[in-house]
Each structure stands twice: as C-alpha cells, then as structure tokens.
Write a structure and sequence with these properties.
The structure holds two protein chains of two kinds. By secondary structure, chain A is an alpha+beta fold. Chain A folds into two domains: 71 residues, Orthogonal Bundle (Arc Repressor Mutant, subunit A), CATH 1.10.10.1150; 113 residues, no CATH class. In chain A, strand 2 and strand 3 form a beta hairpin. In chain A, helix 2 packs across helix 3 and helix 5 crosses helix 8. The model of chain B has no long low-confidence stretch (mean pLDDT 85). The chains are: A alpha+beta, B alpha+beta. Chains A and B meet through strand 1 and strand 2 of A and helix 6 and helix 7 of B.
Chain lengths: 239, 269
C-alpha cells in the first residue's frame, strides 16, 4: 500500500467526466486531457463512488451485486480506489461538492441526447450515453422502482416513460416545453433473458436511492422540471 | 473549407501556379462576401545561393522564413490545417481520413503510419467519395454526426500501391496530388462507422468490432483539440461512440480491406 491521501468516503474529482458505456466506464480528466478506460471491475467500483460510501460500503454493495462475499472483493475495491487516487481522479476535499447539492447540478449537454435518443430494439443490455453522478442517482431511483423482470426485458425491448418537460432558466422563466418518451433507465433494452446477466449489466442503475430523479433533468445550467401530474403518472407507472 | 478561407500569393509565378493547382480543391467560396480571407504569402526571399530561400507569411506575419524548396508545400499545408483547426469549434476535428459511399461516411482514425492516408486514397481511387485524408471535422449540431470535407492534397508515396496515380499526374510535386486527381470529392456526409486501421504486413484480419468504450478511447486519441475543447469534445465523442459502430482493421492487402469495408458499409443503415 502506498501512502496516498484517499478521502473517505471517496468521490470522483469534479474535473473528471464519466462516460458509462456498459460494461465499461471511460473517464476524461479535463485538467490533463487524459482519458482512462476502466475494465468492468474497476468500472463497477468507480460508478459507486458518490461521496457517501466508504470502502466497506462499496465492497458490500459490489458483493451484493455480484453475489460474492464481501471479504472476497474488499481488497480489490481498496486497490482500485487507491489507483484512482494515484491518478488524481478522486476529490481531495478542496473542491466544491456535487453530491447532495440540490437540483441545480451541472450536467453536461450530452445528457440531453440520452434523454431523447430512441431505443434500439433488440439490442443487448443497457446503453446509457453518459452517466454523471446526478444522472446515475436518478437512474438508480428509476431502476430501483422498476420491476426488472423478464417480461420487461423481453417485451418490445424498452420501457418508456412519457414525460412532460420544460426548461426553466436560472432566473425562473420557462424557456421551452414539450413532451418526450424517455426510454426508462437509459434505455433498458432486451437482448438477454438471463436475469442474472441483465442484473449485472444493469447494476450501475441499481445502487443507491439518495436523490430525486428530477436531478437528472438538470442540464447545462438549465433546470428541467416536471409538473405534478406527470410526476404522479410516472410514480404510478413505476409502482 | 469549413468557415475558414484563405488566399495565397507568391512573388514567383511558378510557385503560385503550382500551389494554385495543388490546392485547387480547397478553394471554397467565402462564407460571407465581405469576410476577409487569411492571406498566405509564399515568397522566395533568399539570395540565389541560399539553400533555404523560401518563407511563408500569414497576413504579413512571418511564420517560417528559412524553408528549403522541398518543404514549402508541406509547411503551407500545415498552416492551412492549423487554420482549419482554429475555426473548427464548436465542431470536433479528428486526425482521420474519411470517405463516403451511398450517403454514408466512414471515418478512418489513426496516427501517422497506420495506413489511414493510403487506405483513404485507395478507396477514393476505387469509387468512394473523398472527404479528407488528414483531419475530419465532425459536425454534431444535428441528430447525427456529420463528417465535413477537408479536401487537402493527398500524399502518395512513390513505390507504394498508388504509384500509378503519381506517374499519371502532371503535378510537379510527386508526393502530393489534389484529391480530385484520385476520384470524386464528397460533400458533408452523415457518419456511419468509425474504423481504426493499423498497417500490419502479413497480418490482415477481418474487421473486428469494438465496444463503445474502445471506440470512444480510440476516438479521443485522435482529437487535436481535446484539451482546448475539453468536456464538450469528450461528450461529443461519447455520443459518437454510443451511436456509431466502431471497428479495428489490420490492413495488409488493400483489395481485401476495401472489400471488407464495402461489405460493412452495405450492412449499415
């Protein structure tokens, strides 16, 4: 073990952008313009770094997801986090926190295509264009709320949620509004009837339940809101 | 050429004529009639005995003033490429060749000596539309990524598979030929696939599909403005990698590579 200052609980550095392209995460550090491709195991650890869980908690979550004893994964989780720290990819405590900062979250513009891109029928597993922590949190909420059974995965390839939306400028003025059908959980698409396999592929969506889903809908300085009726409809659908 | 345009002048008529022929494909109408082009001055300014008599100025500012004759065109092309990069944002430039067929663009991203230019030139001689052999500009304002053309001259090595093009050419410089000499020029075309070629003598393989993560990493390795464009550039490549299939291709036999790429393009929507 090297003598690295690893904050606990660990969290990604705000300068690091995450793209989750199942089953791998690709990171971009805007300070160095370096790009990191993580293997699926390291991706699993990375996607759980949200500044709320320590090594023990993350190990427990991974153990649960992959159905293995915590003791088996604890060392690997710690080693992965240490490597992230060694690369300067983790928050050191001096940066502004993004976790738990309410609905006004900077989400890159690229989230928008994710919201509007059509599902791909018959394609395997999850295709989520870009996960930010806020995006992960809301998708986690949605995924936790959906019964991911074989029927969902096999039927038509996608579960869609009708959403009415509006963009509200920081000053409060509504700029635009419309309707879209959001492929739920970033397009949960069929292609496997193996529930265990689906679970592994979908696992990043399933962790945590600590943020309201509207947090995803913050994009590029704008805040996307949903009216009560739509929210109610959404909750009924997810119930 | 994107929204940058330029003019070239020289105090030597033979150089002016040569550049006019070589860079003819790059001449584009001004975006705005009153837009002022960047003016490159390519002058002989050395004494007769000098071995480095040429210089290049950009809008009167010296850029390189001790060029040997054989380096003039190459240096000027670098300046023009740099001009393109300066005007690229918000689009994303990538070091890549690109060709088009049936309204679909294929991007060949790779470092120098990976065979992307040779493959691009080869495909152009075989009926594919030429978009670029050096810098592909990806326009991402619409629903689909679009490859914008950059019709710079193509480098063709003597002794290489395209030597016949050089031999047939009446261009003075044997290493560079206008792209239109090779085949048709293509206009902006929606991107259908990304291929990462690798010149691999004796190891020609089929196209190997890449995961979206592999495609993303492969793309980001070839973005000259990744640092400057930052998250915008990365996010754009995420979108490309997530929506456009990526492949690796070990290239040995150009005929076989062309057949594989033709089959690929035929199978893509």
């Amino acid at each position: 073990m090297t003598d690295l200052a690893i904050p606990s609980p660990p969290a990604p550095h705000p300068a690091v952008e995450t793209a989750y392209l199942a089953p791998e995460a690709v990171l971009y550090d805007e300070r160095t313009a370096r790009v990191y491709r993580l293997n699926p195991s390291a991706s699993a650890v990375w996607m759980l770094l949200d500044g709320t869980g320590d090594v023990e908690a993350i190990s427990a979550e991974i153990g649960e997801i992959f159905d293995v004893p915590v003791a088996t994964v604890r060392g690997d989780v710690a080693a992965a986090i240490e490597q992230f720290a060694a690369q300067g990819l983790l928050r050191t405590g001096d940066e502004p926190s993004a976790a738990g900062s309410g609905p006004m979250i900077d989400v890159p513009d690229s989230v928008r295509p994710m919201l509007t891109s059509p599902p791909v029928d018959g394609e395997v597993a999850v295709r989520v264009a870009l996960f930010t922590r806020a995006g992960r949190a809301v998708l986690a909420h949605l995924a936790d709320s959906v019964d991911l059974d074989r029927a969902h995965l096999a039927h038509a390839g996608v579960v869609e949620v009708p959403i009415q939306w509006c963009f509200v400028a920081p000053g409060g003025d509504t700029v635009s509004a419309g309707n879209l059908r959001w492929p739920l959980a970033g397009a949960m698409v069929a292609g496997t009837t193996d529930l265990d396999e689906a679970r592994r592929r979908l696992w990043p969506l399933g962790h945590g339940n600590r943020a309201g889903w509207e947090r995803l809908l913050a994009a590029d300085g704008w805040v996307m809101t949903v009216d009560g009726d739509t929210l109610e409809a959404l909750e009924r659908l997810l119930a | 050429m994107h929204d940058a345009h330029f003019a070239i002048e020289s105090n030597r008529s033979d150089m002016a004529a040569r550049l006019g022929t070589l860079l003819g494909d790059l001449r584009a109408p001004a975006v705005a009639p009153d837009a002022t082009p960047v003016v490159y001055t390519v002058d002989w300014h050395g004494p007769p005995w000098s071995s480095h008599p040429w210089g290049v100025w950009r809008n009167g500012e010296p850029r390189a003033t001790t060029l040997v004759p054989s380096a003039v065109v190459e240096y000027l092309l670098w300046e023009i490429t740099r001009l393109l990069l300066e005007h690229a944002s918000p689009d994303i430039p990538a070091y890549a060749g690109a060709v088009a067929r049936n309204g679909k663009a294929l991007m060949l991203a790779g470092r120098r000596r990976t065979g992307k230019s040779t493959l691009t030139a080869w495909l152009t001689t075989r009926g594919w539309g030429f978009l670029t052999d050096e810098v592909a500009i990806l326009g991402l304002s619409g629903e689909r990524a679009v490859v914008l053309p950059f019709w710079r001259p193509v480098g063709v090595r003597r002794g290489g598979p395209l030597e016949h093009v050089v031999a047939d050419s009446d261009i003075d410089d044997p290493a560079l030929v206008p792209a239109s000499t090779l085949g048709a020029l293509a206009s902006a075309t929606p991107l259908a696939a990304v291929v990462l070629p690798m010149y691999s003598p004796g190891h020609s393989h089929d196209l190997a599909p890449l995961t979206p993560a592999e495609t993303l990493v492969g793309l980001t390795e070839h973005l000259p403005l990744l640092r400057q464009q930052g998250r915008q550039s990365f996010a754009a490549m995420v979108r490309v990698a997530d929506t456009v299939p990526g492949y690796s291709l070990a290239v040995d036999d150009l005929h076989k590579a062309e057949q594989q790429l033709s089959d690929l393009m035929g199978s893509l929507p």
